[in-house]
Amino acid sequence: MTETKKQLIGNLKVGSEVETQVLVVEANLANYSSPNRAGEQFWRLVLGDISGTIRGIIWDVDILEEPLKEGDILYVKGDVSEYHGLQIVIREARKLDPDRINRRLFQPVSKRDIPGMLKELKEIITNHVDDPFLLKLLRDFFSDRDFVKKFAGSPAAKTIHHNYIGGLLEHTLEVVSFCLKFKEMYPDQIRADLLVTGAILHDVGKIEEYDAESFNFEMTDKGKLIGHICLGKEMLNERISAIEGFPPSLKLELEHIILSHHGQREWGSPEIPKTIHAFAVFYADLLSARLNQFVSVMQKNAFAESDWSEWDRYLDRSIYLKKS
Amino acid sequence: MTETKKQLIGNLKVGSEVETQVLVVEANLANYSSPNRAGEQFWRLVLGDISGTIRGIIWDVDILEEPLKEGDILYVKGDVSEYHGLQIVIREARKLDPDRINRRLFQPVSKRDIPGMLKELKEIITNHVDDPFLLKLLRDFFSDRDFVKKFAGSPAAKTIHHNYIGGLLEHTLEVVSFCLKFKEMYPDQIRADLLVTGAILHDVGKIEEYDAESFNFEMTDKGKLIGHICLGKEMLNERISAIEGFPPSLKLELEHIILSHHGQREWGSPEIPKTIHAFAVFYADLLSARLNQFVSVMQKNAFAESDWSEWDRYLDRSIYLKKS
Amino acid sequence: MTETKKQLIGNLKVGSEVETQVLVVEANLANYSSPNRAGEQFWRLVLGDISGTIRGIIWDVDILEEPLKEGDILYVKGDVSEYHGLQIVIREARKLDPDRINRRLFQPVSKRDIPGMLKELKEIITNHVDDPFLLKLLRDFFSDRDFVKKFAGSPAAKTIHHNYIGGLLEHTLEVVSFCLKFKEMYPDQIRADLLVTGAILHDVGKIEEYDAESFNFEMTDKGKLIGHICLGKEMLNERISAIEGFPPSLKLELEHIILSHHGQREWGSPEIPKTIHAFAVFYADLLSARLNQFVSVMQKNAFAESDWSEWDRYLDRSIYLKKS
Amino acid sequence: MTETKKQLIGNLKVGSEVETQVLVVEANLANYSSPNRAGEQFWRLVLGDISGTIRGIIWDVDILEEPLKEGDILYVKGDVSEYHGLQIVIREARKLDPDRINRRLFQPVSKRDIPGMLKELKEIITNHVDDPFLLKLLRDFFSDRDFVKKFAGSPAAKTIHHNYIGGLLEHTLEVVSFCLKFKEMYPDQIRADLLVTGAILHDVGKIEEYDAESFNFEMTDKGKLIGHICLGKEMLNERISAIEGFPPSLKLELEHIILSHHGQREWGSPEIPKTIHAFAVFYADLLSARLNQFVSVMQKNAFAESDWSEWDRYLDRSIYLKKS
Amino acid sequence: MTETKKQLIGNLKVGSEVETQVLVVEANLANYSSPNRAGEQFWRLVLGDISGTIRGIIWDVDILEEPLKEGDILYVKGDVSEYHGLQIVIREARKLDPDRINRRLFQPVSKRDIPGMLKELKEIITNHVDDPFLLKLLRDFFSDRDFVKKFAGSPAAKTIHHNYIGGLLEHTLEVVSFCLKFKEMYPDQIRADLLVTGAILHDVGKIEEYDAESFNFEMTDKGKLIGHICLGKEMLNERISAIEGFPPSLKLELEHIILSHHGQREWGSPEIPKTIHAFAVFYADLLSARLNQFVSVMQKNAFAESDWSEWDRYLDRSIYLKKS
Amino acid sequence: MTETKKQLIGNLKVGSEVETQVLVVEANLANYSSPNRAGEQFWRLVLGDISGTIRGIIWDVDILEEPLKEGDILYVKGDVSEYHGLQIVIREARKLDPDRINRRLFQPVSKRDIPGMLKELKEIITNHVDDPFLLKLLRDFFSDRDFVKKFAGSPAAKTIHHNYIGGLLEHTLEVVSFCLKFKEMYPDQIRADLLVTGAILHDVGKIEEYDAESFNFEMTDKGKLIGHICLGKEMLNERISAIEGFPPSLKLELEHIILSHHGQREWGSPEIPKTIHAFAVFYADLLSARLNQFVSVMQKNAFAESDWSEWDRYLDRSIYLKKS
User: Fold this and answer.
1) Which of B99, B245, C244, F293 is the most buried (most CB within 10 A)?
2) Can you give the pTM of this predicted structure?
């Protein structure tokens, strides 16, 4: 890990000196307007970390060895002043190697413990999945270290719900948990091992939908052109084709669960749920996402003075925060 | 109880004699077409019980003391013949007193035990509702015998889900059960006593929406002109106004839960859910209704030969029944 | 009434001195950017009255005894300068008691005479409502001074139509007037007393939907969580329950008129109009609102040079103003 | 007029003889099924008049001189029997000349007096239209006997509202009447002569949309391919081009009123109303149509026993008929 | 091929004898209604071939060796009579082996020559696809006899367009032809080899969506649960994974073309077209389908007497057939 | 032509002198904020030409003889400086006569040769239109110099597709070209002369929809109140009424093509296409517009660094630009 110091942007104050790491959120070269510097340029920046964003200025472009671009991580040294809000006037700056950075300073992360969640997931598999083919399929996924690393490090969405590292894992556990509840209610119609397997795998395509390297959960080209639903089905097909004798009927059920888990065509599923297992995963997914989304708005407004939250465009409403 | 025998319509066979009780589903006086009986009339009927419907004919109108109308319960005696399907040619018929009938022969009923469900509901109240005002409110409802009788005898819907006696109670318990699950997931944001109270009361208006006397769960005039959402709020307001000192903020939360529990305006809620408790009840209600609806289609097609169910117009799909 | 002078914001000019009352529309504490005042703050304000808004600056926070907040009414003294448009540099300021303010300086008001409109409403009641129960109900409402004060002081909407003091009264008279026209056309199908009563009461819930104290017609918590439709039904139910022998069929008709007067579920009515009286009130309401909305856009653009109004987002169009 | 007798279909009874005029609503040649008549045919008919429809049978095709087709008017003689409802077994039949038929026996007609309505329309023109060009335009239309005959004989719609002879005239007067009401409310924004002219002419295209000869208000090819909105504009353009000096600005306003009077694109208007006059005609048209539609359902169900009408697919509801 | 004679159903006449092959479209066992045969049963059938359908009766169930079911092909002998339309009273019947049947008697087939179309397709590949990987991919598909047989024997849809054997091939050629037209218009933006490859492969999944054995183009379970879009992608992935060094960027483009070719999510595409090649295939597909659909309705009504076609529910209109 | 020099805005650099012609895109009089110039004003402008826009300042309003307004063309002389981007500080300015300006400096123009396109159109008429009435109709249009000038100088749309001079002509040729392709595919159902005539005339109304004088393709009042669809029909009707004996059936077909060419009511067509010719023109129009729109976004982003275009609000997507 790089050992430069880290001051959180949210804690900066006018008049203080600053020396920290920052993510370059926006970078523009601007022209000096004063006649005596005509033709010369400076950097107008927006800088960020997990605690917020701030504007930055580099008056002297020559302090940098190479041009800046969005997504760079910088070490900077300078002073905090005020100009339509706070800004850092930067005196020293250099690019840092992204692989030697503590990502948690720049990306939000689940409040739940990631290894603990992985353990919980494995116990669920052990307790609920007896069918040898389903069990083999899940073990093939979860004994693949590269897969597990990506799965555990992925958010469940870019902005709407579970949008933090570990979010995919946390969301998956919630979906499984709702599914087990449904199994309890309708034991005769639902097959636990199949439902749990579908619930665990429904969103695996997300690990290829978001760019693991990006500090901003950017979508990959594949994510935009194929989407996690079909990427997930492709991953499933590859694993299944490596398991001899995997029953075609189980393959069909699992493919259908993944394809239909958005519930409606206009929400991106090419088919709607036509089995009880697909129907159950769809509703469990919806529920986990929507509750997390509502509670996130509550948390974001927890210290606001108003009884009403800011308008939330995903929920399309302002929510009432007053405790009765 | 009337002691006349009951043969289920679904069991009748061509050529057999029949003596049973039936519900008059349709009743039309028709004109004889043969010239020798010009001017005379006969009854063309559709008769039903819980097992299905059958056509009926009364060639001699004089065997009845008074005209028939839909909703009557008859004792009939006759022979089963075939004419575009089965029909009963009725030789003897007389009206029965609906109050002396075993309704279960004519109305479907929950598979769960009704007193048992009531007991479960009361235990939930005891275990989860501490607030004295909420407790008093629930006890006022559930110590009112007339209310309890109607609540326990009501369906949750006419056709779509939980459409049987006890259905409202069964549905209510499911909604409460999902709500307790949500509370587990978000203990800091959710207040159990308020959520449980809202879940229990969200559909109370349904006892005035369906006609308790009707064998066919007909909607009342109030049901069609006011709807169970606003009827429920009116019932709530009446009970609350009888409790001195009931906190206005709790009243507001409960009213909002009832009003918004359909989640969207186009689904009949005049306001959308703007509190976590209202949001939770909406999703719990949706989930209970939708799963029950899907499973009902599975059960209805359980003995069909095809791997696919009949088209279901409420789910807008045919469902895949094959076990993998 | 406070006797400080009032200069309308719309009349202010650069370079002049100003001494007047203003409403605080926005209030932000900003940080000085000049190094010699580092750590000090000043007020950046938006100030308003019925004639428009203007920016305001208070460089010296100490001239105020307590912090400002939105909704305050201030007495201010200062100079009008220009900085991206006009602004007042405030030298003296103090809060005023909102109850001692002439609200008409801050809130738009109907062009029609309010007592005159109330008189007209009472004559309509006398001329068209014979039924003793309906008459009693209306008299109970309109002999309650507190109700009448709120009813006469309320707008019919926050932004779209009749959005001024007296607007609700003006709108109500228009709805009644259309209803009487319908009665003329369909005398056999429509009952005048019922229709007039429904028309008068259809929007009573609005007096609890908007905050009477707020200078900006803010919605109350009840307004946002219950809505004027259900608030209106609740007010109706309370008045009716105090009238012995009020016929249930009339109660049902009036409740239905109030609930269904938005005409469609997606427009906020939990039920659609199913009686001729409810259907008539819905269309009278729609007509009054829509015409007022269109004419308001015409008036707002009356002195514009263009033949076309600005785009109006509620009408979703620009309107053609040229006289032929 | 043909002097054959007329018995209304709605009054026929089993066993009676019948001799009357009927409209052929459906005509099918059917094959005898009995082996001894193999290869022979008979007519299966549906016959109608203003009071309803009845099935008809002509066993001997030779009693007719030429084949039947839908839309023919027949003189028939026969007997009323019953076979899945009433039917006439026809012994004698011959085609009648449609021009010598009393159309009122076959087409519904406005309850209002047609010459009286025309007179009222002319008085409105005299009282409200001063502008010489608008006056000339209206007089050109209404002094054209052929136009007036068609206008007075046309329905305003095929099935939904004012669907009877004189319906277009009746509807036009209602639209004018609402428009005058709007003028009263907004005298400064509305110009009476223009609005009245637009209201009178808004639906003139309907005289080419429905086939005047058809007993069933069939749409013409033009009606289906061009529609009354654009046909009306074409008729307007032709009349205006014959008036020297007609102001282009008035032409534009009138064209816009006709084109936009359905209010929204999805309702068939290529442009939405962008002038107060077009906006007013749209709402007056909507109101006249919708109230007539609702009241028609009431009238059709006036003698029904139920408190609720049959489901009406145009209103998409069943309506509550009980008088309170 | 079975050598029994074939008389087309559309040519049958009352009174004639019939001896032919028929498809069992519906099969129901019915009960005799006459008391003397109480308990006995007979077959009520609907029979079909490419020329239409007819009802059939088998009074004596014992003439069959095994029960009938939908989809069977029968040899039948009997007489044509009339009973609510024509029906065959069957005296002799036996099941035929579906594999020995001339399918063209039961399934419609393209008017274009299938080998000729295949040849055309191969020439297009030769002329327009230079890239070695794309060429290899196409050759792998089209040198696989089993694939070619299915591809050439498949319809493009069950009911809406190109719904006949060879329809998929005919449709594919039309899509390619439109695509080449687009390439002509936008040579700089479009890459011919990629576009042609995408056009040829866009619907390959249809060979697994429809059941090749079924006489009625029934959908397979995979067709209903996965859909031809994702089945097509799976087939593509399998072929590509067998080609060493296939460029990932070409794979991505082709996958995107297949996934997005329905153009919108609500039409079943999980992603919308985001490359010019995917956009072009979407519009070429739409155009081919829609024109074929419109022309089919014209052909079906070619000999009708009316100037207007029957209502077509897929086009949601009746079309004007008159030649000008 | 005015002989003042033209420097393209897109080429201006900080610090250089400028002397050129510019279009006034926005013009605002602003107040000086410095106390010593209180009450004085200056011009804040946005100036444009075909290469882009730039801000402009005129400190001394007296250098102009008359006030500026949007749409003016100015000769200006001044210096380019930087203030939140580039701006011209103008020292000299005078209005130019718009008729003496080279419009191509201010309006984009088709890349195809306009006379060449006109010639192509005439050859198409000669080659494909035999019917004497259709031929006469087209010749009447295209021998009218005023019409041809407007037709050739018009864009096909303001912003979405073919939004440049000559765009209407280019679009018309594309539509004709697609139509000829359709004729090839369905020679028996399509009549070439009628289809080609409809394709050529489908958008003629656009020459009255856009203001030929405006540098910004502003819509005319007629364009906004009537729309090009009905304006086109009016132009057609006028031409046809001048041709003796023009067959009504051809008139009806052509009117229907023009009216229905937007395909759906919500897209502005008062009727949907009900003939094969109207259906074909609708799809040809859609295709030409949509492909042009997609390719325009590609061209606009041709030199961008990103693999993805900016979000395009008309296509409602960002497009993938990477070449594979």
Assistant:
1) F293
2) 0.89
CB F275 within 8 A of CB E318: no
Q: How is residue A300 written in tokens?
A: 């974001």
Q: Which two tokens stand for residue A136?
A: 């083999």
Nearest neighbour of A221 by CB, restricted to F14, F15, F307? F307
**Cβ distance of C320 and F221 shorter than 8 Å:** yes
Chain B interface, mutation test: which of A276, A286, A307, A323, most B Cβ atoms within 10 Å? A276
SS3 state of residue A165: strand
Point out the residues of chain F with pLDDT beneath 50.
Answer: 1-2
**Helices C145-153 + C132-142 axis angle, to 10:** 80
Q: What one-character-per-residue DSSP string does C234-265 give?
A: HHHHHHHHTSTT--HHHHHHHHHHHHHTT-SG
- Chain C with chain D: Cβ pairs closer than 8 A: 80
For E45-76, write each residue's pLDDT tens digit: 989 888 878 999 998 888 988 888 888 899 99
Whether residue F50 contacts residue F115, with contact meaning beta carbons closer than 8 Å, is answered with no
Residues of B in contact with A256 (CB under 8 A): 320
CB contact under 8 A, A283 and B279: no
3 state SS for F148-213: HHHHHHCCCCCCCCCCCECHHHHHHHHHHHHHHHHHHHCCCCCCHHHHHHHHHHCCCCHHHHECCC
How many CB atoms within 10 Å of residue B170?
21
Residue E2: predicted pLDDT:
46
- Res. B266 pLDDT band, cuts 50 70 90: very high
Min CA distance, D269 vs chain C (Å)?
15
- Write the residue in E266, E270, E274 that is nearest to A230 by C-beta: E270
Does the structure show a pLDDT above 80 at C11? yes
- pLDDT at position A263 is 97
Chain C neighbors (3+ CB pairs < 8 Å): A, B, D, F
pLDDT tens digits, B47-76: 988 887 899 999 888 898 888 888 889 999
E295 and F276 in contact by Cβ < 8 A?
yes
Closest-CA residue to F141 (of F130, F131, F152, F128) = F152
Furthest-apart CA atoms within chain A: distance in Å: 83
Neighbours of chain E (3+ CB pairs under 8 A): A, B, D, F
User: CA F292 to CA F288: how far, in whole Å?
Assistant: 6
DSSP string spanning E236-251? HHHHHHTSTT--HHHH
Who among B15, B83, B307 is closest to E38 (CB)? B15
From residue E97, give the alpha-carbon distance in Å to each of D111, E75, E212, E242.
69, 10, 16, 38
Q: Evaluate whether F70 touches F90 at the Cβ level (below 8 Å).
A: no
Sign of the torsion formed by the C-alpha atoms of C2, C3, C8 and C13: negative
E298 in reach of chain F (CB within 8 A): yes
CA atoms within 13 A on the CB side of F186: 23
Yes or no, beta carbons of C38 and A83 under 8 Å apart: no
Beta strands B41-49 and F73-82 are unpaired
pLDDT at C2: 45
**Whether E252 contacts chain F with CB within 8 A:** yes
What pLDDT, on the 0 to 100 scale, is given for residue A5?
66
Smallest Cα–Cα separation from B292: which of A280, C26, F113?
A280
Determine whether the interchain pair E32/B82 forms a contact, defined as Cβ–Cβ distance below 8 Å. Answer: yes
| Nearest residue on chain B to A282, alpha-carbon basis | B287
Angle between helices B132-142 and B114-128 (to 10 degrees): 160
How many Cα atoms occupy the beta-carbon half-sphere of C4 within 13 Å?
A: 21
Band of the pLDDT at D1, cuts 50, 70, 90? very low
Q: What are phi and psi of F69, to 5 degrees?
A: -145, 160
